[in-house]
Design goal:
This protein has 340 residues and is α/β, with parallel strands linked by helices. The chain has helices at residues 2-7, 10-15, 18-85, 89-123, 190-196, 216-233, 247-258, 285-292, 295-304, 312-316, and strands spanning 134-139, 149-154, 169-172, 201-206, 241-245, 266-269. The protein has a six-stranded mixed beta sheet with strand order 1-2-4-3-5-6, with helices on both faces. α7 links the parallel β5 (241-245) and β6. The N and C termini lie far apart (59 Å).
């Protein structure tokens, strides 16, 4: 043991001859380089197999599509020959142009209406759009760690009865280019389904612009405070069900992992937490995440945005960047349905 401690003494390295120091460094680094080379070779082999299988899948898919395209083209040519033989080709062409013109005008008018609605919504401060009324319970801007997130209590529509002793639902909206009310836009939604079962429903919404100096930790802090407030409002109910949609699913995992007292049932919709799942060559996310993922992309985009990361970047990237999460925290609603 004394010899080992002596060999690890930095002062001895300074005093040691250069040949002895080079030998010790080589002996310690060479196994590490060997392990790195072996891991790199294995990764390259997996990527090569994945690429070959992906190319095979692409070729098979395009071959099938090409066959369908040729069949449809032959059917179209046969129909044109039949119309031409009946002498109705000119009339059919005129009807097609009339129909196309009418559809183009209707499309432009629809775009105009959508633009007017967008301007009216912007002028109103971009409030969340729900099929039912709501009231604000907590505002993240009032917390010590400020954020632009807000806890809303969804008011049941007429004819819907809610039991406050049932397990409440907390639906967290995604922040990846989505609107702040994606879980309750219409009656047949997460909010509506929970209402039909008689559960109290809360929704975590957000304002478009973050607060000054806001980080993801601020959001985690606010969401944990929201869950505790819902628990306080329903003392006779079980722990709330927290539903995280898309990016909010990863945020939910961070909140639960850092606040163990809130570990009730959680539901993650569209939030893959296992980057290596799937089949090689078919599910490309399992290796795309390793090649094009990492924290540097979000940091780079934040720098380009002057310190603000625009959630729309996540939507445009189609979630090809998988955020690191805790797969052990996944919970299925079905396993808790009997206890709700």
């Amino acid at each position: 043991m004394a010899d080992i401690l002596t060999s690890l003494n930095p002062l001895r390295w300074i005093e040691a001859p250069s040949t002895e120091l080079d030998s010790q460094v080589t002996q310690s680094l060479f196994p590490m380089f060997q392990r790195l080379a072996a891991a790199g070779a294995e990764t390259a082999k997996i990527l090569q197999v994945a690429l070959l299988r992906r190319v095979q899948v692409m070729c098979d898919t395009h071959s099938t599509r090409q066959g369908k395209l040729f069949t449809e083209a032959e059917r179209l040519a046969e129909s044109l020959r039949e119309v031409h033989g009946n002498g109705n080709l000119g009339h059919a062409w005129a009807e097609y142009l009339r129909d196309a013109s009418e559809r183009a005008i209707l499309c432009m008018d629809l775009l105009r209406q959508r633009g007017d609605i967008f301007l009216e919504h912007e002028a109103a401060g971009c409030p969340p759009v729900f099929f039912c009324d709501y009231e604000t319970v907590m505002d993240g801007n009032d917390l010590p760690l400020k954020s632009n997130y807000v806890l809303l209590r969804m008011i049941p529509p007429q004819g819907v009865n809610v039991d406050d002793t049932k397990r409440p639902f907390i639906i967290i909206c995604p922040r990846a280019g989505h609107s702040p009310g994606v879980g309750g836009h219409k009656e047949d939604s997460q909010v509506g389904v929970a209402f039909r079962e008689g559960h109290p429903v809360y929704l975590v919404s957000f304002r478009r612009e973050p607060e000054g100096g806001q980080y993801l930790s601020n959001v985690t802090y606010a969401e944990a405070a929201f869950v505790r407030e819902v628990m306080r409002l329903h003392p006779l109910a079980r722990l709330p069900v927290v539903v995280g949609n898309c990016q909010a699913g990863w945020a939910t995992l961070l909140m639960v992992a850092t606040n163990l007292d809130l570990a009730g049932p959680i539901i993650l919709n569209g939030s893959p937490v296992t980057p290596t799942s799937g089949n090689i060559g078919e599910n490309t996310l399992r290796y795309m995440a390793g090649l094009f993922g990492g924290a540097w992309i979000t940091m780079f985009l934040s720098d380009l945005g002057g310190g603000i990361f625009d959630g729309a970047h996540l939507e445009r990237r189609c979630h090809r960047v998988l955020l690191p999460c805790y797969s052990a925290s996944r919970t299925c609603l079905a396993s808790h349905r009997s206890s709700m």
